[in-house]
UniProtKB/TrEMBL annotation:
Residues covered by the W2 domain: 251-413
Keyword Lipid biosynthesis: no
Keywords for the protein's UniProt record, in alphabetical order: GTP-binding, Initiation factor, Nucleotide-binding, Protein biosynthesis
Alphabetical list of PANTHER family matching this protein: EUKARYOTIC TRANSLATION INITIATION FACTOR, EUKARYOTIC TRANSLATION INITIATION FACTOR 5
Protein name: Domain found in IF2B/IF5-domain-containing protein
Provenance organism: Lentinula boryana
Pfam families xrefs: eIF-5_eIF-2B, W2
Matches recorded under CDD domains: W2_eIF5
UniProt cross-references to InterPro entries, sorted A to Z: ARM-type_fold, IF2/IF5, Transl_init_fac_IF2/IF5_dom, Transl_init_fac_IF2/IF5_N, Transl_init_fac_IF2/IF5_Zn-bd, W2_domain
Keyword Hydrolase among UniProt keywords: no
Length: 415
């Protein structure tokens, strides 16, 4: 599975719904004898997820191992001399993340490195965009000399349509707030006419038997009925009621109500013996028990827990639960965030299917035109890294084009 190559940036956090993710570092041994070396094929992708130049962690490995390093940034080739085990380098990467990425105060990786000059002295500071704290790094580490000689490039804001965008620069990218608007996605060069036709045709075939009546929701959630159904579904998993009213919950806490909901759904979705409606009601009841049935983050978790590479068949199957939980623009954005993570991180092979996925959600009235249009034209790092965010939005262009044309046709008809 593609998801096997994605890990939490903080690998001490055992929570698959943790927001901050990165590719698992890979290695390749080349050469023999004195010329043997360890190439890190995906160092650029790992560094991009950390919002650091790939030269920094590579040089960090060299400092820790007492080995020479070399970089070919144009071809994204990063090398540590000698033969080094992948697991050893992953452990060292954890050390780099702790020392040069995570905020010392809140342990959030959304930081930017800043060099402060005080007379002749220079300090390297981690500027956290999550909690606002500025915490220093250990200036005794050898890497600091390299950073001072090769400072992070300050990203200039306000440029339009910059091509690869500031995420591709791979440096100091923590400076944007999660919802900050970035460069609009550039227009695709390929013809979308055929795909647009396919989207329209396949929309007609969507199964619209996804709604549960008010009576069904209330009947199934009556104490006696729910007790019987959930007992069969839970498989012994105890529901813990959380009453802290925390809208976001802790990304670091594997026992947060959101993680409990996600794990319960994943473990229960294949055990309902074909009775999908009962499962959906039980899932909603579980969210109620946890006190998060109205929270937008619950929608994100449900999307991550329910959808797989068979998402086009699963959307109509699970549509009733999302119809019940998606109640505002914020909830719609969380649903889109779940799709971003699904196709951008877990199943990149689904990228070509993004227009069909959006059409399926749109046809079920889970997404409004204004929300999906705004989402599709502004890159954000709220749910994934910016480069992944950009790829997903790029893939959505045929659907956005269809929406625009459908809107134009509607305007022409009213005149």
């Amino acid at each position: 599975m593609a998801s096997a190559g994605i890990v939490n940036i903080r690998r001490d956090v055992d929570d698959k719904f943790y927001r901050y993710r990165m590719p698992l570092l890979t290695t390749k041994i080349e050469g023999k004898g004195n010329g043997i070396k360890t190439v890190i094929p995906n160092m650029a992708d790992v560094a991009r997820a950390l919002s650091r130049p790939p030269t920094y962690p590579t040089k960090f490995f060299g400092c820790e191992l007492g080995a020479q390093t070399s970089f070919d940034e144009k071809n994204e080739r990063y090398i540590v001399n000698g033969a080094h085990d992948a697991n050893r380098l992953r452990e060292l990467l954890d050390g780099f993340i702790d020392k040069f990425v995570l905020c010392k105060s809140c342990k959030n990786p959304e930081t930017e490195l800043i060099i402060l000059k005080q007379g002749r002295a220079e300090d390297i500071i981690r500027d956290c965009k999550a909690c606002g704290e500025r915490t220093g790094v250990d200036m005794r580490h050898k890497l600091t000399t390299f950073i001072l000689k090769n400072p992070p490039v300050k990203i200039k804001k306000g440029k339009k349509k910059t091509g690869t965008g500031d995420a591709a620069a791979g440096v100091g990218g923590g400076g944007d707030s999660p919802d900050a608007e970035a460069s609009p996605v550039e227009n695709g060069a390929e013809s979308d006419d055929e795909l647009t036709k396919k989207i329209k045709a396949e929309a007609k075939d969507l199964n619209d038997d996804t709604t549960l009546t008010k009576e069904e929701w209330s009947a199934d959630t009556s104490p006696e009925a729910v007790k019987q159904r959930i007992k069969a579904l839970e498989g012994g998993i105890a529901g813990v009621s959380i009453a802290n009213g925390d809208d976001e919950g802790s990304d670091d806490d594997a026992n947060s109500p959101y993680s409990q909901l996600g794990k319960w759904v994943e473990e229960s979705k294949d055990n309902h013996e074909g009775d999908t409606k009962t499962f959906l009601v039980a899932a909603y009841k579980k969210a109620e028990e946890l006190g998060i049935e109205k929270k937008h983050k619950s929608v994100l978790v449900l999307a991550q827990a329910l959808f797989t590479d068979d998402v086009l068949n699963e959307i109509p199957k699970y549509g009733a639960l999302f119809a019940k939980t998606v109640t505002s623009e914020k909830h719609q954005k969380a649903l889109l965030g779940g799709i971003e993570r699904l196709v951008g991180l877990s199943h990149p092979d689904l990228l070509p299917a993004v227009p069909k996925i959006l059409m399926a959600l749109y046809q079920l009235d889970l997404l409004e035109e204004e929300v999906v249009t705004q989402w599709g034209t502004h890159v954000s790092k709220k749910y994934t890294d910016k480069e992944t965010s950009k790829k997903v939005r790029k893939a959505s262009e045929p659907f956005l084009k269809w929406l625009e044309e459908a809107d134009d046709d509607s305007d022409d008809g009213e005149q």
